Amino acid sequence: MDPIAYVNGAFVPLREAKISILDRGFLFADGIYEVSAVLDGKLVDNESHLARLERSVGEIRLPLPETIARIKEIQHELISRNQLKDGLVYIQVTRGADVGRDFAFPKGVKPTLMMFTSVKDIVNAASAKSGIGVITVPDIRWTRRDIKSVALLAQVLAKQAAAEAGAGEAWMIEDGKVTEGGSSSAFILTRDDVLVTRENSSAILPGCTRKAVVKLAEERQLRIEERAFTIEEALKAKEAFITSASSFVQPVVKIDGKPVADGKPGPLAQRLREIYIEFARATGT
Ligand code: PDD
C-alpha cells in the first residue's frame, strides 16, 4: 500500500506530496515539528506533544494554520488511511513559501502544515533488550533547545558519528555535563538509587516521555533529582537510559565504549520501560 501523507489541506500519496523550494522550512529551517508514537493504532501521550507543538510555535511567533482539534483529526485520519498499528506520526509546520528569500517574517503567507506516518515496532525493538551504546559529542546547538525546531544539523552530525561508532545515540556535552541525546532525554540511576535527569531549561528539549517517566517514577516513590550530570558520574552509576517518543525507554549499556555497571540493561530501566508501555496502552487516544 502506498503511504498517504497530508500537505496543506490534502491527503496525497507520500511519493506525490510536494512542498515549494521557497518554503521557509527548506530555506531557513523556519519551522517546528513534533513526533508522536502510535501503539495498537492509538496515539501515545499525544496531548503532551500537541501542547509542546503549541508552545514551540508560540516561541517563534508562527501561527498554526489549523486548530489543535483539527490537527488531532488529521493525525487520526492518517493512522486510519495508512492502517497504522505501531509507528510514528510526524507533524511539521513552517512559516510557508514566500515569493523570495527575505529573512524577516513574510506578510500574508500561509504557514505550511504537513504530516506523515511511519511504521516502527517500538515495543519489540531488539535494542531495548540488548541496550544501546552511546558516544559523547560536544553540544554545538543554538541556545533555544527548548523549541522543537526543524534545525537539526547538529543532531544529524551527532547521530551520524554515533552510527559510525556502532552506537545507538550520541549524548551531547556542554560545560562538562550531559545536556541530552541527539533525539532523546538522558537519565542515570546513581549508586544510592536516585534517578537523575537534567532539569528543563532552554538547554534541552522538554521531553514528553521524560515528563511521563518522571511522573510514573514519582508515583512509585522513586527518588528523583532533576539536575545535570557528568559522564564520570554516568560511568559510576548503577544504570543509564534514554527516553523518547520513538524509543520509549531504552537502557544505555556503554558510554564511549566503556560499560555502565556490568554492561547489561539495568533492572530499573527495564521496569520503567514496562511501566511506560502499560501507561501508553492504557491512555492511548
Ligand atoms: N526526538 N531531546 C531531543 C533533542 C529530541 O529530539 C527528542 C525527541 C527528545 C525526547 O522528546 P520526546 O520524549 O518528547 O520524544 C529529547 C524525536 C523523537 C525525533 O526527533 O524524532
Give your account of this protein's structure.
- With 285 residues, this protein is α+β, with helices and mostly antiparallel strands.
- It folds into two domains: 4-119, D-amino Acid Aminotransferase, Chain A, domain 1, CATH 3.30.470.10; 126-283, Alpha-Beta Barrel (D-amino Acid Aminotransferase, Chain A, domain 2).
- The protein is built from eight helices and 15 strands.
- A hairpin with a 2-residue loop joins strand 3 and strand 4 (42-43).
- The longest helix has 17 residues, at 267-283.
- The radius of gyration is 19 Å and the shape is globular.
- The two termini are 24 Å apart.
- Residues 35, 180, 183-185, 205, 207-210, 243-246 line the site of N-(5'-phosphopyridoxyl)-D-alanine (PDD).
Number of strands: 15
CATH topology of the largest domain: D-amino Acid Aminotransferase, Chain A, domain 2
Q: State the helicity in percent bands.
A: 25-40%
Mean pLDDT: 98
Largest sheet: 9 strands, mixed
Quaternary organisation:
single chain
- Taken from the alpha-carbon principal axes, the silhouette is globular
Q: Which ligands occur here?
A: N-(5'-phosphopyridoxyl)-D-alanine
Q: What is the rounded distance between the termini? A: 24 Å
Instruction: Name the CATH superfamily assignment of the largest domain.
Output: D-amino Acid Aminotransferase, subunit A, domain 2
Question: Given the structure, what is the number of helices?
Answer: 8
Enumerate the spans where pLDDT stays under 50 for 5 or more consecutive residues: none
Order of helices and strands: EEHEEHHEEHEHEEEEHEHEEEH
From the alpha-carbon coordinates, what is the Rg to the nearest angstrom? 19 Å
CATH architecture field of the largest domain: Alpha-Beta Barrel
